[in-house]
Every structure is written in structure tokens, then in C-alpha cells.
Amino acid sequence: MIDKIDWTKNDLIPAIVQDSSSNKVLMLAYMNKEAVELTCNTNLAHYYSRSRQKMWKKGESSGNLQHVKEIYLDCDLDTILLKVVQDGGCACHTGRESCFFNRIDVNEQPSEVLSTMDNYSVTDKLYHTLQERKLADPKTSYVASLFKKGENSILKKIVEEAGEFCFAVKDNDEKEIVYEAADLAFHTLVALADKNINPDLIKQELERRFGLSGIEEKNSRVK
Questions:
Q1: What is the pLDDT along the chain (223 residues), one digit of tens a residue?
Q2: Which of 55, 119, 172, 183 supports an S-S bond with 161, CB 3.0-4.6 Å?
Q3: At what angle do helices 151-171 and 142-149 cross, to 10 degrees?
Q4: Do both 83 and 128 map to the same domain?
Q5: Is residue 103 one of the residues assigned to a domain?
Q6: CA angle 167, 171, 175 (to 5 degrees)
Q7: What are all long-range contacts of 108-112, with beta carbons under 8 Å and residues at least 24 apart?
Q8: What CA–CA distance (Å, rounded) separates 173 from 176?
Q9: Is residue 157 situated within a structural domain?
Q10: How many domains does the chain have?
């Protein structure tokens, strides 16, 4: 089937995922050639994460695997449709059956997203929650108010929290060090969310640096 796909337009193609029994749309993801091959060979849905810039098997962290029953291509041969049996009954990282649950009506605020991502890391859960706060009311959400104020306000908070963290370290107060480090990490994640940069990319960069001396790492950077 992979030979039928038109890869000339893009290296990634959209993948619409439906429940094989109800035909309910569960999610939208993207696949490259490797993802399509793995999906066809294993009958388990694999995708390419644009934000993390790497392959991922659906359910590898949460256990909510997608067992692929049927695969279709659209008329232009550049969009794929997967019909799956969804383990756990939820395809969305929030713990919901479908990713498409936020109804937006004219003159109404989108519904608040409840995060129940018990099987995801706290960083992943927080990053997704921060992204969701972009839809929230700035009058009732601190994060939404930061996004509304813009980049300068977000960066000002990071500088402020970095200073407070340094003072806590200087005072050698363990409780305050942890507290202020959490504040600094939180506001740094707000800045990453504002730029749509997944924190997993930071993790990958840190992993890349293992085995390199600090001098080697700095010299390896592209000027």
C-alpha cells in the first residue's frame, strides 16, 4: 500500500483515525513512510510526532494501543484513514474517547479541558494543559492572561523566577530551592508552549549531550 501513497507533496501525510465499530472519529495524527510500514507490519498504529520530531507507537506510554483493522487512502492518495479497535476506550491524551470534544460556539467560551493523563509524565501533562489554556478566559486563568499579555510578560516572569531561585540557593533553604525551581520550570514551560515547542525536544537534546564534554558540546554547535 505504501507504494500507492503520493509522497511528492510532503514527507508527512495526515492520518484520520476512526473507531472500527462506530466510525466515530477518534483523532488526527501524521505518518511518514516508516510509520506506515510499521503500522502495516504490526497492525498497531504508529505515527510521527511533529512536535517531538520522532516516531511513536500509539499507547506506548499509556497502554492505549490502537489495533488497526482497515486502512484506506483518499482519492488524492495523500491522506490515510485508519479504522481501529482502541484499547482502554480512549484515544485522547486527556483520557477521553475522542480528541474532538471541544465545541466552539459563536459568543461562547470553549469548554474547559479536564486533564486525566494519568499515564503521562508530569511535564507532558503540564505542557498539554498549558496549550489548552490558550483557549481559556484570561480573566479566570493565570496562564491565559500571560499568553494574552505576550512574550515580554512571559520572559519577565522567567527572569523574576530565576532571580528568586538564585536567592533561595544562596540562602541554602532546601524547601525554598525546590519551590522556586518549580516556579522557574513552570514559567519556562509557558514560554515553550507559547512557541509550540514540545519539552520532549529539550529531553532529546540533553540525551544527545551524554558522553560529550561541555567544551566539545559548545564547539559542536552551529554558529
A1: 677 888 888 899 999 999 999 999 999 999 999 999 999 999 999 999 988 889 999 998 888 999 999 999 998 888 999 999 999 888 888 888 999 888 776 655 555 544 445 556 788 888 888 988 888 899 999 999 999 999 999 999 999 999 999 999 999 999 999 999 999 999 999 999 999 888 888 988 888 888 777 777 677 766 5
A2: 183
A3: 120
A4: no
A5: no
A6: 90
A7: 109/135, 109/136, 109/137, 110/135, 112/136
A8: 5
A9: yes
A10: 2
Long-range contacts of 23-32 (CB under 8 A, 24+ apart): 23/83, 24/97, 24/98, 25/98, 25/100, 26/84, 26/86, 26/91, 26/92, 26/97, 26/98, 26/99, 27/91, 27/92, 27/98, 27/99, 27/100, 28/99, 29/58, 31/80
Asked whether residue 216 is assigned to any structural domain, the reply reads no
Residue 141, domain extent: 122-208
Q: Are 104 and 170 in contact (CB under 8 A)?
A: no
Instruction: Please say which residue of 89, 112, 141 terminates a domain.
Output: 89
